[in-house]
Amino acid sequence: IILRVCLATYSFDAAICAHGQECHAPSLADLFDRVIQQSSRVHGISSELHSDYEQYFFPSKNHIGKRKCHTYSILTPADKENAQRLGREELTEVILRLLGAWGDPLSQLHRSMTQDQNQDFNHYSSNKALEMSDMVHELRSGVTKVAEKMKLLGVISNALGYMSSPESLAPSSVSSSYERGDFNSIDHHDLLYCFRRDSNKVKNYLRILKCTTLPELDC
Hints:
By secondary structure, the protein is mainly α. The chain has helices at residues 28-57, 80-85, 88-100, 103-115, 119-152, 166-169, 173-178, 185-213, and strands at residues 3-5, 16-18, 23-24.
């Protein structure tokens, strides 16, 4: 059976159509698969850009010290076991908070890179930063749709507040830290390091959330 998405542009909740049959809305499992695939793409691009940036600007790695990512105030499970013990509502909120915290920093990173003097590399890297910014926005929208489906099915509570705007989910330090826009190469590198770390968390948490929500699937 050949399946196709019935919309011209990709959407996380686009209907699934079997050839010659009626289209049907995606199941919760379908939605999970779509956001997990997107999160894997985001993490792949972030890892690639971080690695390329490090090799281009800091091949000796002597500058690398202890970093404090702007998402440090978001409490996240330290490992798979802790994530599995966390309730579905709490893990969903952690994922949305992490994604909400990166909208503005990635946009600022893109703008800063376009103005940087290292044009040979930053033309490439700024395009990648913009792509990541767009993909994070899409991914957060997709995770929100997953949460809405979970609420509709009674899997999670209707009383939670994580469906609010990205700005309200981001740590309060984010806006003040990035409004100035006075980045340097080390700032760029640290942001990429932190985003690679957080995008990996989101990818892993989504997989765990799928398996704890739909235990009948082969995880």
